[in-house]
Specification:
The chain is an alpha+beta fold. The protein has helices spanning 7-18, 71-80, 131-141, 197-206, 259-269, 320-329, and strands at residues 2-6, 32-38, 41-47, 51-58, 60-63, 65-70, 85-90, 95-100, 103-108, 125-130, 156-162, 165-171, 175-182, 191-196, 212-218, 221-226, 229-234, 253-258, 280-285, 288-295, 299-306, 314-318, 334-339, 346-349, 354-358. Helix 1 runs antiparallel to helix 2 (71-80) and helix 5 runs antiparallel to helix 6 (320-329). The longest helix has 12 residues, at 7-18.
């Protein structure tokens, strides 16, 4: 195998695939990237057996062939190369010679026959989703994925294809984010799946605002094809909890407020929270909300912010990290906070189909 490629293009495609490789790979081959050169392009593929990523890039291929090389070391070498053109030649012994300007490296690979193949999706359900829709939905929900491995069904984004809609949900038991969109697909393609966090992260790196994603679903596997690149993943098996149960019904009060001003105020006030007192208290009055933090060992902070509020005066406390999460991932100028009382969950909403349920914390007395 022999090909020449620009340093920038080679590094870009290596970075696309290397994130999926675990630093604690159980097999040596899983630390490697499969490189296949043919017909004026090279395809790079990496996998950890749960998630696989494959991407294609144009190259000047002088000799077809395939091999596997240690992906993180290869990416480190390419990143440091002094010239803009890289020449790669691999012999029958899977030793790769890499030349760029005055630099020369030889690294030892493994045969491509050892590399585990990605699954195929011959008879799977198929969907076409606009990239912008999928990227927006994952951005607005994925931060609420649980990292508690004992609750493995929460370690991903729940995706439901039902009644001409696609719904995305993520929760860790203390907050829940949901986005719903219309989507055309045959009724026979209705399905409920859980896409693991790692695949969600890879998707977000690869998605853009243009074009469509071709999704295929077969058994316990899913694939996403994006502009010639491919992400395949095992799905999380199990029953996702009934998320609709935790969404409060009728609201009692509604606060309308500038998203950016609210976010910046919470960020400043939360500087005075601590591990033992990790909450901010929101006190509502006509036309404003008072944001407070109080920590015996640190001190206290308070800031008032104008808001469209005409309800009863009362207070509620939230974890500031959880409260800021949706505000950081939304683009809308105005958000709404729907409330019932100081002990019931609050719901962040926007004018589009999005909601974020956040459980309250015990209101501490401010000094």
């Amino acid at each position: 195998m022999k090909f020449t490629i620009t340093k920038e293009a080679f590094l870009d495609v290596l970075q696309q695939v290397q994130h999926v490789v675990s630093s604690r790979a159980t097999l040596p081959i899983l630390s490697n990237v499969l490189i296949e050169a043919a017909s004026g392009s090279i395809r790079l593929t990496a996998t950890d057996l749960d998630v696989g990523v494959s991407a294609v890039i144009s190259a000047d291929v002088q000799q077809d062939g395939a091999t596997t090389l240690p992906v993180k070391r290869l990416a480190s070498i390419v990143r440091e190369l002094p010239a803009s053109e890289v020449s790669v030649e691999v012999g029958s012994d899977n030793q790769a010679s890499i030349k760029s300007g005055p630099s020369f490296f030889k690294i030892i690979g493994l045969g491509e026959e050892e590399f585990p193949p990605l699954p195929t999706f011959d008879d799977g359900k198929e969907y076409k989703i606009p990239q912008a829709l999928l990227l927006n939905a994952l951005k607005k929900t994925s931060y609420a994925i649980s990292n508690d491995e004992t609750r493995y069904v929460l370690n991903g984004v729940y995706v439901s294809f039902k009644e001409g809609k696609v719904t995305f949900v993520a929760t860790d038991g203390r907050r829940l984010a949901m986005v719903e969109n219309d989507l055309e697909y045959p009724a026979s393609n209705e399905a409920d799946i859980i896409v693991p966090a790692k695949a969600v992260a890879e998707l977000q790196r690869m998605l853009s605002d243009d074009g469509d994603v071709h999704v295929q679903l077969s058994g316990s596997q899913i694939s996403f094809e994006i502009d010639g690149s491919l992400i395949v993943s095992k799905l999380i098996e199990g029953n996702y909890p009934n998320y609709k149960q935790v969404i409060p019904g009728q609201r009692k009060e509604r606060l309308s407020i500038s998203r950016e001003d609210f976010l910046n105020t919470i960020r400043r006030v939360s500087l005075l929270t601590s591990e033992s007192s990790n909450s901010v208290k929101l006190s509502f009055s006509q036309g404003s909300v008072d944001v407070q933090a109080n920590s015996k060992e640190i001190g206290n902070a308070e800031e008032s912010i104008p808001a469209d509020y005409n309800g009863e005066e009362f207070s509620i406390a939230f974890n500031p990290t959880f409260l800021m999460a949706p505000l950081k991932n939304l683009n809308e100028e105005t958000i709404y906070l729907d409330l019932i009382d100081s002990m019931s969950p609050g719901v962040v909403r926007i004018d589009e189909s999005f909601l974020y349920v956040i459980m309250p914390m015990r209101v501490t007395q401010q000094k």
